[in-house]
Amino acid sequence: MKRMTEDPKISVDRVYNEFIESEYGNTALLPIKKAFQKAFDIVTSVFYTLGTNLTDHSSLNYENNKWGYSRHVSGRWIDPPVVRVEHDVNRTFHYWKDIVNHIAPVQFKSWFSPSFVEVKEVFDRRWMDVGEKMDSLYYRYIVTEKRYGVRLAAEALSEIEKTKPVLDSVAYNELQQLFYRTYLTASLHEAVCTAYYGIRIYTGDKKSYPKMLKEDILSALERITLTVNEMEQMRGSYPIGQYNWLNDARTALWYRDKIKRMLYE
Questions:
Q1: β-bridge pairing 48-49 and 82-85
Q2: Pairwise CA distance, residues 98 & 73, whole Å
Q3: Which of 65, 163, 245, 264 has its CA 20 to 30 A from that of 32?
Q4: E runs forming strands in 78-226
Q5: What angle do CA 142, 160, 61 make, to 5 degrees?
Q6: What is the distance between the alpha carbons of residues 128 and 192, in angstroms, rounded to a whole number?
Q7: What is the Cα–Cα distance from 70 to 142, expressed in whole angstroms?
Q8: Is the peptide bond before 80 cis (omega within 30 degrees of 0)?
Q9: How many CB atoms lie within 10 A of CB 70?
């Protein structure tokens, strides 16, 4: 924004070039720029779900984030409340009738929930149904988007790793660790979403859930464990503010253990 105020006609490409060259020199410009250019789609496919933000101050919180399904839904400020989701999903959704109605946990869809107070007009218009609406179609949309985020984060990390021969060790290590944490974050969200939204179908109408659903959930639980183990290896090597990255690892293990119990009840 600073450069835009200085030069209203400046291009996005030039902003990338100026920043990267000033911070890292021009020998690594191309791979770093390719990685940076993926950042928006990584964020909007990992921390967002089908066009709406479900993370709580960036933290992993799908089941208990009451404002993620009401106050913070992007559709509150868009008329009409529709969104085009790319990320290998490539569909247009209504924020309330399609997205929130399917992905919100049942406790945030009742007339006695915080959502009713926060977005009463949504209930008045009958844009949400009481009860569980997660189904195999929306499950596939969510898993597709999260896997897209993992793939993109891996591609960005690969671009950064190309710069090792030309960057000094301090600059390279900072960038490599940043994008490696990004990849692990994307992997953790994908695994948790696959297990969490999957178990909501599995514990519902067992006649209608997708083939191999239980196997997919079990595989996701294994990925949670593997990703958390990798995250633990980075303890003490990342900045901590209001958001502590490793807290997500503990949250993921809570999801893992709860879902595992639900599978065998």
A1: unpaired
A2: 12
A3: 245
A4: 82-85, 91-94
A5: 30
A6: 25
A7: 19
A8: yes
A9: 24
C-alpha 244: how far from chain center: 16
Rounded-to-integer distance, Cα 140 and Cα 119, Å: 27
Q: Dump pLDDT digits (tens) for 71-122.
A: 889 899 999 999 999 999 999 999 999 999 999 999 998 888 878 888 989 9
For residues 154-189, one letter each, b for 16 or more C-beta atoms within 10 angstroms of the residue's C-beta and e for the rest, the string is eebbebbeebeeebeeebbeebbebbbbbbbbbbbb
Condensed to tens digits (0 to 9), the pLDDT of residues 192-249 reads 999 999 999 999 866 667 779 999 999 999 999 999 999 999 998 888 888 899 999 9
pLDDT band at 136 (very low <50, low <70, confident <90, very high): very high
What's the mean per-residue pLDDT of the chain? Answer: 93
Burial of residue 235 (CB within 10 Å: 0-12, 13-18, 19+) is exposed
Overall residue count recorded for the chain in this entry = 265
CB 201 within 8 A of CB 127: no
The number of helices, as runs of H, and strands, as runs of E, in the chain is: 11, 4
C-alpha 188/C-alpha 183 separation (Å) is: 9
